[in-house]
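Bug report (template v2)

What were you trying to do?
Predict the complex of my protein with JFZ.

What happened?
Run completed; filing so the output is reviewed.

Input:
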Amino acid sequence: MKLNKLKSLSLLGLILLAMSAVAVVNAKEQSMDEMWGNEPIASTEVSEKLQWFVDDNYSMFIHWGLYSSMEGVWKGKTHYGIGEWIMHMAKIPVDEYKAHAKNFNPDKFDATAIVKLAKDAGMRCIVITAKHHEGFAMFDSKASDFTITKATPFGRDPMKELAEACKKEGIRLGFYYSQNQDWTEPNGGNYKGTRPEGYKPEDFEIYFNEKVVPQVTELLTNYGDIGVVWFDTPGNMDKKYSAALVDLVNKYQPDCLINSRIGNGFGDYSSLGDMHIPLTQNAGPWETVDTTNDSWAYAWYDEHWKSAKKIASNVVEVVARGGTYMLNVGPRGDGSIPQDAVDNLTDAGTWIKANAEAIYGADASPFSGFSWGDCTVKGNNLYLHVFDWPKSGKLIIPNLKHKVKSASLLCCGVNIDVLQSEKGIELLCPSLNSKNMIPVIKLELSGKPEAVSSALFVDGQYPTKLEAVFSKVEGCAHKVVKWMEKFGEWKHSDNVGDWKKSTDLAKWQVNILEAGKYNVKVVYGCYPSSDSSEWIIKSNDDSISFVALDSGMRKFKKGEPRFRARYMTVELGVLSFDKTGVQLVTVGPRGAPQGDGFLIERIIIEPYE
Ligand code: JFZ
């Protein structure tokens, strides 16, 4: 579906469509992100006011509102999905939702403890929901009565307390503000009640002038210096509104940043959606937003916590692609933060602080990631973050342009021996105690870290992932697939698909460091109508034919909740590489491709034992 067609749909339709329908898009077409306001910002320049953003690299996101007090439950029934959308999921009438405010008394809210957690986690900025789609102001506002100060027994202004605690501890503060969607405001975007008599879409302007402008002004004038106003889900909001908000922010706080979800191409940096860490670099300054579990807002059942190592490796992977990671916590209705989140963030923070040199102010890796981990760069230093320490004691890097002047462990300065062989450089890694979550090797090079080749290498030790995005395609195409698991829980997958002819091919350049036999796996999604289609994977010297099996991919059907993407990992068998050196691995159909689709996410080449 083309964007211009979508633009003519109503906002409600747009949101429902985005939340439910098929989201398979060609890399060239405009993607779902753009409708949510994740379209690229007009300028990719890093102006002076962006410097802290590109250097700090790691922030805390907080989703906290009236919805937090419902904890994923309405009238005894749990609604599985992102907790801040409970009003939508449970179809709560506007008056009942508003009345719930009298039960909201977050007496365990402790701004000092939250700021301490951010600091312990190694985060340098906090962005908190001042007003989410529910329309409830978590601050003292003259522009509405639906606020935490007026409508609850709590009566305090937690944004004020947080602003003071942040200032004291030197943590930057940002406010999330839902500028378009306001579910409890009769003229707001996606209002959940019955519109006032005679309502016209242009009446959005009343809501905008009477609520958005005064509230954003309050946030910019009553809470000291604000690092960022984080707007969200602009939908089809008119360009004049995005422009007016840019002017408003600039008027009161010219140094304050704005994210791309202000819409219409405005904003200082891009916010990527769907809790996704990209495999490739993006143009201009950008961030990935993600959560410590699955839901942004607290939901009682959500125990899918990211471990400390997962959090730390996500930070590394985002920095390695040149971005910033903003990781969310969802405080409970009483204001307290779940202990799992506290523990895991703190443990990851201990690692980040011990390896600060390789994180803060660090730049993107010249490589697209390694099987054992990832890299960050500062000056002539290359930092190897080894998620999976080599059992053989040897790490090989075949494609470094410059000589290694020194190699050591960042944590403790221990020297690492380096061998120069025809394969590249070999690092002789000592055995380590398991307390070092992600050992970092610092390589001081004779020049700025650069890769001489982008070929993915197969070293006989680690499995090599041939990701779809790294393939060259002939006839077929790169495809992004986005879908939701539980409601609002977006997933993202990069694929090769769109097979049309028997001659179509996806090709990966590989550098075989160790000749011999390898186990090959493929991760794919296959529609029922493509079940039994035939495929062939080839190395220079060998090939394996295989037949596709329905993996559970389902198109969006009326009456079903939404489109389903389901992938599976299948072992194909043994493939030989007789010679070392750079060569191709190819995949294509045997005969004419058939059915709705066969989507390859990656090929995995594993040592054969
Ligand atoms: C939005 C909100 O609706 C949600 O409640 C949460 O605040 C999240 C951080 O942002 O949801 C989005 C926005 C964009 C995408 C997905 C979910 N996207 O671009 O894929």
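What did the reviewer find?
The radius of gyration is 25 Å. The pocket of JFZ is lined by residues 32-33, 36, 38, 82, 84-85, 232-233, 273-274, 289, 296, 490 (CB under 6 Å).
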